[in-house]
Structure formats: C-alpha cells, structure tokens
Amino acid sequence: MTALPPDWAAALRAQGVPGAEIDAARAAARAQAEAADAAPQDPTSPADPAAFIAALREGEG
Amino acid sequence: MTAPAATVEEAVARVASGESRAALARTHLDALEAAGAALNAVARLERDAALARAAELDAAARDGRPSAGPLDGAPLAHKDLYARAGWRLEAGSSILAGNVASDTATACARLDTAGALDLGRLNTVEFALGAEGLNAHTGPVRNPWNPAHVTGGSSSGSAAAVAFGAVPAALGSDTGGSIRLPAAACGLIGLKPTAGLVGRSGVFPLSGSLDTVGPLTRTVRDAALMLNALACFDAGDPQSARRAPRDHLAGVEDGLRGLRIGVPRGYFFAPLAPAVEDAHEAALRLLEAEGAALVPVETPGIETANRLTMLIIAVEAAAQHAPWLAARAADYGPVTRRRLCAGLFQDAGAYLRALGRRASLLRAILSETFADIDLLYAPTWTIEIPTIAEAEAAAGGSSPMIEDLGHCSRPVNFLGLPAVTAPCGLTPNGLPAAFQLIGRPFAEPTLLRAARGFERARRFLEDHAPALRAGAV
C-alpha cells in the first residue's frame, strides 16, 4: 500500500512532472469546478448513487 | 482456408451447418494478426488458448453434446480492459505491463457461456482515458477506412478490428463515449447499454459512476445478439440491475413506423461542422421516409451534464490511480497524466454536487425531453474524423480535442441512458458519419429496432463493406 502525499503538486514535481503540466491540471480542475458551481443547485438531489439508480429505474418507459 | 465471417450471425450459422470452430477461429486469428500489423489494433492474440477452446467445442459437438449456446463458435475479442484469468490485462499502459488477471470479467464469462471464442486483447487508449484513439505507449490505432486517420477511442482496437473484418464483434467500454465514438469513426454499430444492464465486474474502472460496457458490431442484429448474452445481474457490480432476461432480437425487424424521434437542434447540433451536416440531414430525411415522426425537442440542462461528466471522470479516475500517481507518475503518458491530475486538485464538494445533479437532471430530461418521444436523435461526432497528426496536435495542446469529441456522447453517460450509434454516410474526407439514438432507461429493444430500421433502408454496410474488405490499408 502506498501512502498518499499531503501536497500533490510537490509530489508530482519531485517525480519530474513538468510544472506546466501541473498548472494545466489545476486549471482544468478549476474550470470543472466552476461549471459545477455555476449549474443550478438542487439541495433535494442527494449525491448518493442509490438516488440516481432509483431515478433511472423509475424512468423506464 | 475459410473466409472470415462478416457477422456474428454468419459465424454462428456456419458453425451450425457443420463448419469447424477451430478452422473459423484460425481464419480470424490470421485476420487479427493482419489487423495488428496494418492498424495496430491488437494488444495480444491468444492463439493457443482460443484454438484449444475451439477444439474442445468441436469435440463436444462431435460427441453429440448440446450446442454451446447462441454464440456458438463466434470469434470475438475484447478491449484490453477486461480481465480473463491467466491472460494479461495491461489497459494500454506501462503501469500494468505484464499484469496477469486472476479472475474473468463477468462480460467475458457471459460470452463464454454463450459459446463464443475469445481470440485475444485489443488495444485501448491508456486506461481508457481519451476519445482520440491515441496512446503514448502502444501508439495510435489506425482507422481501416484510411490509416492516416484516428479510430477515436477509447475502444480503438475494438473498432479497428471489427471494421477491418478481423472479428465480427468485440467488447468495448463507454464512460463518456468510448464505444460510440470509435464505432462511429469506423462505420460500425456501437451499443452503450443503460447503466446497470451489463455487469462490469472484472473491467478495469475509469469512473465507477459512469462506466458501461458493451459491444461494437457490424450490424444491429449482432448488437442485439451480443446484448442477449451480456445482459445479466452481476453481484460484483454495485450498479447492476436485477431484470428478467429479454430477447433483443424479438421486434428488431419491426421498422421505424410509429416511432417518435426527438430532434434536439440546440446543444447537440450547434457545434456541427459543415462537413458533417449533410449526412445528418439525409439521415433525418430517411428516418422520416421510413415512417418515424420527427419531433423538435429541447434538452434542458444537457450542457451541465456534459461539464459535470468531465469532473466526475477526473475525480474518480484520479482516486483510482492516486497510489500510482504518488509513486510512478513518470510511467503515465503525459496526456493521460494531465487528465488524471485534474482530479487530484478537485474539491470534494464540487464532486458531490456533480453526483447530486444526476438524478434531478435525469428526471428533467425524462419528463420534458422524452415526454412525447420514444427516442432522441443526436450526432455522434460533431466533426469529420481527424487525422492522427491533427489529433496528436490537439491532445498535446492547451485546448484538448477531447472536449469537443465527447460533446454529444458524455451527457448520455451522466444520465445513464442507453444509446446506439449507427453509420449514416460519408463525409467529404471519405470517412464515416454517424448518429446516435438515445432511449429511456432500459429501452434497448426500441433503440435496436429503430437502428435496424435505418440500417435496412440505408444499406451502409452493403455499400461499403466490399471496399473495406478489399483493404483501404
């Protein structure tokens, strides 16, 4: 089992991953999060995968 | 030397009329070897194991034991993401180089039970994370229609091998379009089943929430046959649905008459390149001429579904790969690593909000978009199939082509819906154009019926198979 690093950017740099690649990954993460936050929020829609599976099964035509 | 079987149905029929499974398997192993050499489609053939199993089935038949099943003797192959006990599972990676599976994936076991012969592993994008069909370790898979072009991904070897005629069908996986995009790029039928219909145990995960597994075939009837064998409850797959078995061939010839097909001109058509528009307009006219009613529809929230899919894939894939990223980051291809690392830097709240939107967006699409239709029409690719050079330039740049390639396919995974892609013409560069039909949950019989109705009228395979067989490569 491998313990995970507390600082991913440092861990990746230490393995020789270019800084520009790490910056690009961070930028992609930010863009994805912004999209998630900008989407209409529905506090009644739980993140529980079971809720989605239930919606799928009740939606059968 | 026998000729390869063009379809699963043909292979099964030939075996039923007395042809040796071993001889047929040998023919397809040779064809796969050619597809490997010409197109880089093959990770590894398992000649000895396949021929031993074929000989076993031949002997059983000679002894008068009952036929192995509905896929008796069908020569197939699988994406290098599926486990088969004793065979390597390397997922197109260096990380898993030399890894030998200890169990067999549920899907492979189901095909075994149905009598199919697994001939080996087909190349994939590294860990299935990419829609272009590129791979820094194994090299790009080449498109049988024109080897300078990509196959799309991530089930790239599966698509190339089937389009080349090396096997009549192969297994792929689809997390954001990875069955549909390569099937479309290679002029094939690609079936992404409803989430939960086909068991995923033993398939190396990319995103547990969004992964689905299914077949790439040359005909719709073969897709139905394959789904008959594959659909099952899988106790090892938390998403698996308990459902009564269905015969997906029943009703597949019922045609398009009476079906209402939604045409969402907004999100799905807006980014269409002019070069692919004509093929879609012609396809819609043909669907209508065959008796389908075309209904303009809106798809509320679909843009959100697309963006949230990327987030979920990034986070779930990064979580899966974190131990390797911590210790062996240099062993990934740079594009794969960049995509994985985006998930390392994601906020847990954003991820949970993304998951939380799935049920509500699905309900909205079903109650609004699907209120008055049976199926939804959408393009599969929005652009002509690019060359390998174009795809490599885009994948390495700051605006990855993947964001465009999955535009029409990713939302379907977010919603968990079934979809089938079918070829509908050629674009000016001589490569296939394709559409997908998207259905309500578990509406695979309706999807296959509609796709078969179109296939029968369009006769794409009949028009183009000879050219493919003659060898574009």
TrEMBL record, chain A:
Residues 28-49 are annotated as: Disordered. Residues 28-42 have a biased composition (Low complexity). This is Uncharacterized protein. It comes from Rubrimonas cliftonensis.
TrEMBL record, chain B:
Gene3D superfamilies: Amidase signature (AS) domain. Residues 25-448 form the Amidase domain. GO terms for molecular function: transferase activity. InterPro entries: Amidase (IPR000120), Amidase_CS (IPR020556), Amidase_dom (IPR023631), AS_sf (IPR036928). The keyword Transferase applies. PROSITE patterns: AMIDASES (PS00571). SUPFAM superfamilies: Amidase signature (AS) enzymes. Keywords: Transferase. Pfam families: Amidase. This is Aspartyl/glutamyl-tRNA(Asn/Gln) amidotransferase subunit A. It comes from Rubrimonas cliftonensis. The lineage of its organism: Bacteria, Pseudomonadati, Pseudomonadota, Alphaproteobacteria, Rhodobacterales.
